[in-house]
Structure formats: C-alpha cells, structure tokens
Write a structure and sequence with these properties.
Elements (H helix, E strand, L loop, with lengths): L3 E5 L5 E3 L5 E10 L2 E2 L9 E8 L3 E2 L6 E9 L3 E5 L10 E5 L6 E4 L5 E4 L6 E9 L3 E8 L3 E3 L4 E8 L15 E5 L6 E3 L6 E9 L1
Antiparallel strand pairs: 1-16, 2-3, 3-4, 3-5, 5-12, 6-11, 7-10, 7-12, 8-9, 8-11, 13-18, 14-17, 15-16, 15-18
Pfam families: HutD
Organism: Embleya hyalina
Protein name: Protein Ves
Length: 203
C-alpha cells in the first residue's frame, strides 16, 4: 500500500519570506532522488502552506508550474505584466474564492495585492518541476484514490477523515502527503467532509 505521512499545519516549521511579506510552512519537498534527495533548489515537487501578510512580489520559479488555492482570508489579487522573456499575456486574477485552485507558470513574476480589509490570507501552494511532474489540484468530498506511481497531498477543509495509520484522525488543518506508491490505496473521508487533493504524477 501507499505509505502516507500525517501533517498538522500548526506544527509545521515556519520560514519567513525574504521580503517580509509572509511566511511558508513546508509540507513536503521531493528532490530528484525522492524526499530529501538532491539539491533542495532542484526539487521535483513541493507542497506548502503560505501566509501572505502584505502586498508585494512573488518570487519567480523558472521551470516550475504552480497551483495555489485560497484557504482562509479575503483573498489576493495576482498581477503580472505581459511580454518579457515568456511572451505571456498580462495576468490579473482575483483569488477570492476558497478551495478554488488557480494554476500559473512559475516563470512569471507576479505581484500580490491583498483584498478586502487587507488582512493576511493563507493558501495551499503546490509546485512541480516542469517536464518531471505535473499536478492536478481539486476539491473533493468522497474517498480519494491514491493511484500507484503518483505522489500527492490531501488537506482537510471540513469534517473528518482517517488515514489507516497511528496518530490522530484527520480534522480541518490536518492532512496527508505521500510519494509514489507500489500499490493503489485510498484516503477515506467521512460523509460530509471536504478536502483539497493534489494528485502529483510523473511526466
């Protein structure tokens, strides 16, 4: 069966952003050789919970695809100029609906502006190295299959869930992550529960 790892967002290590605009709580970071393998800057995929506390730039991640999902707060407006090295069109996106993922290229340099009263927001951040991994992030309300050969993250938004191992039951703010497994498994959610599932699969 796929081996899962339990996490609680409130006990994850916290690292401040270099520009002072927020902080990051890392869930998992898988290098080319698997979790903890290789150069951390050359990760295969990475999952984290970020707090955006002030207006300011997002650091670019060339060669990386990103998906962020609002978890708490009024939201944030993401803005990028057009043209430049990527030749991309201008971007102006309001991330103001909880549990609705937004995917974009990490090659782009984005600016973030807090919405509403300007209070801090919290987002789930999934990053995959283009050409190695790709991610599909979605809202789920039923037991989640863990496909063989896929990695992933499950973050509980409401309700409860079980994870088939030692430790406390899943509740909002807790979740699971796993690397590619040798056999299919299932991360069950109790009826009425809602979670975010990032299915991370090799290219």
């Amino acid at each position: 069966m796929t081996q899962t790892h339990l996490f609680d967002v409130e006990t994850l290590p916290v690292g401040p952003w270099r520009n002072g605009g927020g902080d990051t709580r890392e869930i998992a970071c898988a290098g080319p050789a698997g979790p903890g393998g290789g150069d951390p800057a050359d990760f295969g995929w990475r999952a984290s919970i970020a707090t955006i506390a002030a207006d300011g730039p997002f650091s670019p991640f060339p060669g990386v695809d990103r998906t962020i999902t609002l978890l708490a707060g009024d939201g944030v407006r993401l803005i990028a100029d057009g043209g430049g090295a990527t030749g991309a069109a201008p971007l102006d996106h309001r991330l103001d609906r909880a549990a609705v993922p937004f995917a974009f290229s990490g090659d782009r340099t984005l600016r973030a502006r807090l919405l509403g009263d300007g209070g801090a927001v919290r987002v789930l951040n999934i990053m995959t190295r283009r050409g190695r991994w790709t991610a599909d992030v979605r809202r789920v309300d039923a037991p989640v299959p863990l496909p063989a050969g896929h990695a992933g993250v499950l973050y509980l938004l409401s309700g409860r869930g079980t994870h088939g191992g030692p430790g406390p039951a899943l509740r909002p703010g807790r979740g699971l992550w796993w690397t590619s497994g040798a056999a299919d498994g299932t991360a069950p959610l109790e009826p009425g529960s809602v979670a975010l599932w990032a299915d991370i699969r090799p290219v």
